[in-house]
Amino acid sequence: MLKVNNLSKSYQSGNQVYPVLKNISLEVEKGEFVAVMGPSGSGKTTLLNCISRFIPHEEGEIFLADRDISALNEEELAKVRNQQMGFVFQDFMLLDGLTVFENICLPQIIARCPVVQMEEKAKTICRLFGIEKIMEKYPAEISGGEKQRTAVARALMNQPYVILADEPTGNLDSKSCKAVIDAFLQAKKELGATVFMVTHDSFAASFCDRVIVLKDGQVYGELMKKGSRREFMDMLLDTIRILGGDGNDNE
Amino acid sequence: MTMNKIRAKLRKQNKGQYRLLGLCVFLSVFLVSSFTLMFFSQTVQELLPRGGDTRKLMWILLGVVVIGCLLFTLYGGNLFFRNKGREVGVMLALGERKKELAGQLCKELAAVMGKYVFWGVLCALPMSYSIWKAFQLMIVHTAQMEYRIGMAGLGAGLCFAALDCLCILFMGSRFIRRANIMDILNARRKTEMVREVKPWCGKLGVALVVAGFFLAIAAPPLMVRFFRHGMPGIWNGTYLLGAAGVYLIMLSAVARCGRGKNPEKYYKNIISVSLMRFTARQTTRNMCVIAFLVFVMALASFWGVMYYSSAMQGGNDAPYDYSMHYPAKEEQIGEEEIRRLAAEHQVKITSYEELETLELVIQYIGRDMDEDHRYFDVEYKKLASFISASDFERISGCSVSLGKGEYMTIITSGFVENIWVDIDCLETVENPATGSRIVPLFRGSVEFDNLTAGSEPFAFLISDEDYLALSKGLPDDRKEEHVLFNVEDVMETYAFADAWKQAYIARATKLSSHCALYDAYEEELALAAGKEYPYAGEVDLSPDNMQLMGDWKYAPFSKVTRQGEVMELVAVFVLSSIYISVIALASAGIMSYVRSITIAIENRQLFEDLKRLGADEVYEGRVIKIQLRKLFAYPIGAGCIAAGGFSLLLTYFNDMRLQLFEVKMLLMEVVLMLLISGIMYGVYRIAFKKMICLIRDKRV
Ligand SMILES: Nc1ncnc2c1ncn2[C@@H]1O[C@H](COP(=O)(O)OP(=O)(O)OP(=O)(O)O)[C@@H](O)[C@H]1O
Ligand SMILES: [Mg+2]
Fold it and tell me: Over 50: is that where the pLDDT of B377 sits?
């Protein structure tokens, strides 16, 4: 579903060039829930932003459903973002002036979908994520976990090929964190969604099918989920300890 | 639910932002069009002499008004788009196309601006009318000064409105074009640290300001005085030194902070200082603009007051209330007719004098400037008026002792020596008919305003002996008659003055219908050399020629009309100055306010964090206060000091001395500055309250 080939990216600061991503290749299957972990500064956010084409990269290709999106223009990108990608940001990025329901509808409103179907769909999704009670509330009136579940619901609205999430649980306590992860799992199960998530949090990552570990801008390794979630999490914590990362985020 | 509904909802939620933008548009359109309505009205246009300095100044003022107004609209626009950033970012991330966003934004902006432009222009009409009323109150008489709305003024106002809207639309399109999801995602973390500011930065700034002002204001007159060399226009670039200095001072004020000598103070203020440091460049630029506006404001009001009082002075120093001079062959109104007119108007004439002057050919050295701004001597040969010593004694009541071959120069009161001509310039005097000439000796000068008009560069006094000798054989068309008289309560005699003037004009024939700069001898020379004489044309002596008094060689003088005329000119200028300062004040106020609000919005998170760290409301208030105080006090201080220094240098170096009235004016300026500071203090209070609201509201 999502395939990255030899992606390289560097930042320029003054006349110095800092390579951040070095020749990264990875692949995410349809219906897979994949996390990216790694020490701070290893380039996780940068990777995600390159994939979503929020920032330009120097080399490499990005395939979304077998279509190279690394050379699309703004117009085509807008369409891809609207139809084929869904985003979940760390600080939610909901519009304060719109209700939860309206926020969720936004991707279809932008795509100018027929209203009746849209509202039906939004309601279904709200029910799915257990947020139908707060549909008419405004973002300022709901909790962090609810906000993020709203954001996940919004990301799913157009049934994208892949959901890209950068530390979706970063601002949340562990209970809300679980609720958001459940939302992802639900999306995967019920809607067959593909999720690509950057996280620090071994607890969150332990729910994934697979974890890609980044170090210094390179793929350090991949961990497949075997056995129980508990065991997987211990495995992740060990890996992080070895990497010398700040394994501060556990339960 | 459709996009339109969503937009309407977002608009409703962000009403305040739309209103602020609208307010900026409204204010700028309102201020500019009321100015243009006044300036382009037929009456004012007829009043201002074509090609005159006042007209030029007015154009400059108009430019300043336009720029000031554009500036604060741009400011409002900036804030508006900044607030809009998040919405646009989210839309982009959800896959909305930029073109679509741009179109929508354009529609919204057009709706907002259309509405406020309409109101702005509408309100400008009564405003310009009231300006006009104020203007009529200030001047002595109001004849021929009906208020007329000019289509030109309205058109100019609308043109400005269009320009204003275009600017905002342009900003909008640039905003959309540049909108970048990353920037919006990172908005919270985005900072613009200045690199470390060196400790000498502020001192260098002060030095630059002083040097810049000195070079720009003091150097040119000194150069002219000592080297006879003018400065090219580009020399004004030295003002930029001063501007750079102000920037450095602001920068060091904003961003410089070290533990230094007073670590206690450093830690006490650390939050407010660091708050500013993260947006130092923006803030500094901002403060510079505000300082500039304060400068403009102080200067404009200063000049307004200065012009007003000098206009009140206009013509007051003339020894005679009424005077006229005309070619001796002209059959002008005589004493009998003047007395009859006076009696008709219940005006009592207290003294009445007549005298005759000789128009003799003089040779003198004056100065001119070449293209390289170097002054060079020129020898002129032209006519000038000569008065006999005994005549002068009779009309002035002072005694002069002039021997044979001596002369005195008659100057206007308060005459300031200048580069173009010296008061002892006279070389020879010649009777053009007989060719008899003398080479007279300079014996000083006397002030007598009534005799200086119509004789360039001066009129002169010579002894009775010389007068008699030189008048021999001089034809009558080289003689002029002067009539001078005083009345009781001169300032109450406007009606008489007008009737007298009209009677005088009615009698004037081709003999005296010459332009102000006309010189019969120069014309003769030019014609003999086969050249065209530039001042040959006739002036239009019809009673409704508003420019006549300025253009006519034989214009009559009366204190009461002179004051009216000067005031007419000056009042326009004074009002414009006041206007400019109001506009500058409005801009400065809005900009400071917007800046404060921006700081509050951008640092909400920080205040939240502070609270979590245990800061109470008192601490919070103090942080804001220190911040705001800097934001307000530094630019106002810098602007006022700059304006004060500027006007002090200017008033001193225009004639190398400070006269008493100039000192008074400078004191006046200080009062004005205090007033400005007071108003800005009010803005500060409002901004402070709003900031507190913004920061605390979020938390409830
Ligand atoms: N805009 C930028 N300009 C220059 N360098 C940057 C920029 N953004 C990130 N970097 C650098 O790129 C590297 C990778 O940053 P990135 O944000 O991708 O790390 P990360 O893995 O997401 O870290 P964290 O886990 O702390 O979020 C870092 O060393 C960072 O300093
Ligand atoms: Mg990151």
Answer: yes
DSSP string, A96-152: TTS-HHHHHHHHHHHTT--HHHHHHHHHHHHHHTT-GGGTTS-GGGS-HHHHHHHHH
Among the candidates B152, B168, B190, a domain finishes at: B190
Residue among A95, A119, A161 with most chain B CBs within 10 A, to mutate: A95
- Domain co-membership, B157 together with B239: no
pLDDT tens digits for range B519-575: 888 888 888 988 888 888 888 888 777 677 778 889 898 888 877 777 666 666 777
Could you say which of B190, B208, B224 is where a domain stops?
A: B190
How do residues A44-73 score in pLDDT, each as one tens digit? 999 999 998 888 899 999 999 999 998 888
- Residues B176, B203: one domain? no
CA of B26 to the centre of ligand 2 (A): 45
Domain that holds residue A94: 2-243
Domains in chain A: how many in total?
Answer: 1
- Cβ neighbours for B481, distance < 8 A, ≥ 6 positions apart: B325, B326, B327, B328, B330, B332, B354, B355, B356
A251 found inside a domain: no
pLDDT at B498 over 60: yes
Lowest mean pLDDT of A15-29, A66-80, B587-601, B632-646, name the range. B587-601
B364 is a domain residue: yes
Q: Which residues of chain B have a Cβ shorter than 8 Å from any chain A Cβ?
A: 1-3, 6, 9-10, 12-14, 86-87, 89-99, 180-182, 185, 188
* Ligand 1 center–CA A11 separation, angstroms: 9
Q: Which of A57, A90, A98 to mutate to test the interface with B (most CBs of B within 10 A)?
A: A98
Whether residue B535 lies inside any domain: the answer is no
B7-21 burial by CB neighbour count: b if 16+ within 10 A, else e?
bebbeeebeebbebb
* Domain-embedded: residue A122: yes
Domain that holds residue B358: 322-492
User: Which of A89-98, B297-306, B346-355 is predicted least confidently?
Assistant: B297-306
Residues B26, B171, single domain; the answer is: yes
